[in-house]
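hey m, so remember when u said the C-alpha cells were messed up on ur end? i reran from scratch. heres the input so u can diff it against urs
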Amino acid sequence: MKITRSLIILAVTASLLMACSSTPAEPTSVSLAGEYLNSDYTDATSLRNQLAFGTIKLEGTANAITPEQAKTLIPLWQAVIALSGDTTAAEEELTAVQDQIVAGLSAEQLQAIAVMKLTNTALNAFYAEFGIVLPTPIPGVTKVPGSGNTLSQIDRESTKTAAIALGTPEGTGSNTGQAAKTLLFEKTIEYLTGVAGQ
C-alpha cells in the first residue's frame, strides 16, 4: 500500500513538472524589421528610423514607394507618431505597427534600405536641415543627466541667442526632444502624402 501511494505521488509530481515545462514562455517582442534590417554596424540608427529615413531616401530610385503603398503606409506612420507621444503605449504596440509598415514594403525595397546602412550621423544632418541640433554622443562616454547645468543663466541665454542668430536653435528641453522624436516620422508622412497625390 505504501509503495502504491508513493508511486501515485511520484506520478502526480512528474505530471505537474512536465506540465510546467511544456508551458510556452511569454512571447517576446520580435520585430519583423529585424529580418531585413540590422543595427550591428558603427553608428547604426534604430530599425524604426531606418524604415522611415530609408523610405524617404528611396525617392528617385527603382525601388521608390508607389502611390498605392503610400496610401497604406500613411496611417501606419500616423499611428507611430500617436504611440510615440503616448506614455502608456507599450513597445510591443509600436513593434506591431512597425511590422505592418514592413509588410507594406517589398523585399527589394527593404533590401535597398538595408544596403544604405543609415547612421545617426546622417539622421542628425537631416534634423539639422529643419533646425534641430542634437548632441552628438561621444563613443564610450555616458552622458550624466544634469551635467550641462554648470553654465550660468547668462551663459545659457548667450548660447541660445547665438544659436538662434545662426539659424540653428539649440536643442534644450523636452520640446526639442519630442520634436526630434517625431520629426522624421512627420517628414515621412509628408513625403508619402506627396507620393499618394493627396
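this time it looks ok to me. Confidence is low (pLDDT under 50) at residues 4-28, 140-151, 165-176. if urs says something different then somethings off w ur setup not the seq
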